[in-house]
Amino acid sequence: MSAVEIVLSVVKVLIMLLFFLNMAALCTWADRRQGAMVQDRVGPNRAVVHLPNMLARGIVLLPPALFGVLAIFSSLGALAGRAAAERFTVNVQLAILVGWFSLLVLCAKVRSGGAINKAEEMFADVDPRSFFFAGLGVHALGLVAGRLVPPASMPLAAQVSGFVLGGVFLIVALYATSRVPDGPIPLRLAGTLHAIADSIKMIWKEDFIPKNADRILHGLAPMLAVFSAIAVMAVVPFGPDLCFTDGNRNGTFDFSDLGNLVATVPASGACNGFLVKMQIIDLNVGILYIFGIAGTGIIGAAIAGWASDNKFALLGGLRASSQMVSYEVAMGLSLVGLFLVYGSVRMSDMAVWQGANAWGVFVQPLGFILFLTALCAETKRVPFDQPEGESEIVAGYFLEYSGFKWGMFMTGEYIELAFSSALLVALFFGGYSLPFLHADGITIAFGDTMLFQYKMTHLAVSIISALAFFGKTIFVTWVQIFFRWTLPRFRYDQLMKLGWTKLLPLAIANMMVTGVVVLALRNAGPAADSWLKLLADITQGFVAVATLAGFVALVVGLLEPVERKKFLASSAARFAAAMGGVKPEPQQA
Amino acid sequence: MPKRTPSNPWTKPAGKPIEGKAIPRPRRTAEVQAYLPEFLRGMAITMRHFFKNTKEMMLGQKPDPVLEALNEGVTTICYPEEKRPYPERFRGLHRLTLRDDGSPRCVACLCCSTACPAQCIHIEAGEYAEGDKRRGYERYPKTFVIDELRCIFCGFCVEACPCDAIRMDTGIHATPYDSREQFIYRKDLLMEFTGRDGSRTSANPRHEPGDPTHPGLSREQMDH
């Protein structure tokens, strides 16, 4: 292993660690926030840091000003041909985007904080949606107008558009800075500071250990819980393999080769240079490693329950360990069908197979449901949160924990949540692959009929794929948190019954049926293969269309005006209405 | 013949079957038992609430939490920043209204302290100096103390006052302090508070003896 490979490994470990630890912190916030939004409460938004005024102005001023100056400086040199046209388009679209978005923000601020001049009063009267629609119109207009520029004057147009973009950035920066109110600025970040405040609190809290507790095991248990949650992320691929050429032709991969990322790779992803996997380690046992390490989490829970010298903790530990042991069986068996289809337990092979064929959720729908259920039970979250029933056994196995040890249990739980989402993405939602995005660019093809092709560089494809993996993971985590706010919890006997009498037989049936079908298809001949390929492409098309439709529905839903029925029931309400609603003034209290 | 015990209406009458409303068993159709369709329906409901409320928070269209009886939506108020306005007749901390010359309207008649069920008002009445036209006609409070910890905010003192000298219209909620001593409100503090409209006087005009508007007898008109 050369030095560069060690450095790259450290970088990959850092990427995964930072992503999952931050996800854990964000999940603690998102959990409360989603619950609040579902149940009509405000949720966490009270943690606040008062920024000094100059710092706030600097934050508002510097980044956009820097972008503006960069845009102007990068436009000083003339471009030619296709590059000039691309730069012109990008500049114009960016300027339009920055323009309408700033106007939208200004409108919101003026509406909530009041206008200081005639122009702002005018903005306050405009419906905020108009800015969005007008922005879309100007975007389209910019694309059309760009076609009218003659090719000969395109370099000049690129330069001018660069100056305009820089100017827009600078104006926005200066105006926003002038509108920063005096005095310290409260920074809330929508309540995400709560996670930081909580962890600071937990670090300084007293670490209480019961008198008769086993001090060593009591300290060891949270470490085991966090260890199992962190160690499993080693084998999850978060991007396609990067291909480097041997620049100095010395036959070894060294630091100077890091700059020699190949420009393009063929659709097969073949690489005749040095491969760097976007995966901490590509074990051939892959998913089995995950099962093995995740199994040690049971030990953490069991030891925590035993070492606390508390009946409730012991019961919680028993419940946790028996639940996890039971569901581990179903979890492992529900994936066997998937291994038969993919023909491998190596995580990177699975991602490649899904990118080339169909996503796992389409080839193994029943396996997906079984695995998802078992995974929820493994992470011990609602509806399977038996180990910590407040009304029955209080906090379960971490009842006697406080301070940072308790924080480690909670962090471990939320890391597990984020990691289980990553696992679902890697196994069932195509890993880092996106529909129709191949190693050489976008190719929309159904069977043998090619509809559309757009070549992209290796770097662009790699970045988009990695972002796709993390984006999908965040989305699945978000959906998993919704389980908690939707489902009532099971009783403990129901939980055991579900695991042993429903999931396990279904998993075995799924495994056998899959085996038969896979054998039959393998012997069916080339005609069946081409039909399967077409079906796979149709599923890819379905995913693409569904994603697009979901996005459009989201935007339409956000733009739809809110209508409410109001009626005043009490004298207090009528009085408040006469006063003009709630005003943040101290005299009212 | 033994006396028949009267039938208890709360127990089952002898020989009669229990009558009651038949409660249907819960539906156990295949769809319900499969759990997944219901699960997806539930997810759709929670997500709809989530997006609706989030959008309103982000757009600043949160309904006014004070206008209660809104049937849906985020109705929490962020307390120290946003406050619920108290109703018009809210009884807050006491204040002593003033005359035009800045002295308290109180005539130390002890009606309020007598009416007070919590016995939290202590007044020491004083006579005006010799030669003052109010001497012998009315008195003034040398000390006027209200223990706001004992006060139950019933408003009887305001009702009892014949001179509109004590009011509870400051709109100030009882404040937390760190010692009991700070809850003892004395005359000068009580005279500093203003009503919600910002005035220290009361709306009812005061007719001093000697004023042409004074309805009663003045010292000069008395013949004894």
Q: How do the strands line up in the largest sheet of chain B?
A: 2-3-5
| Major pleated sheet of chain B | 3 strands, antiparallel
- The Rg value of chain B, from CA coordinates, equals 32 Å
Tally the beta strands of chain A. Answer: 7
Mean pLDDT of chain A: 85
Helix run count of chain A? 20
Structural class of chain B: alpha+beta
Largest sheet of chain A: 3 strands, antiparallel
SSE string of chain A, helix = H, strand = E?
A: HEHHHHHEHHEEHHHHHHHHEEEHHHH
* Helicity level of chain B: 10-25%
Largest interface: A-B, 48 and 47 residues
Tell me, what's the shape of chain B? elongated
GO molecular function (chain A): NADH dehydrogenase activity; oxidoreductase activity, acting on NAD(P)H, quinone or similar compound as acceptor; quinone binding
Catalytic activity (chain A): a quinone + NADH + 5 H(+)(in) = a quinol + NAD(+) + 4 H(+)(out)
Membrane topology (chain A): Multi-pass membrane protein
Keywords (chain A): Cell membrane, Membrane, NAD, Quinone, Translocase, Transmembrane, Transmembrane helix, Ubiquinone
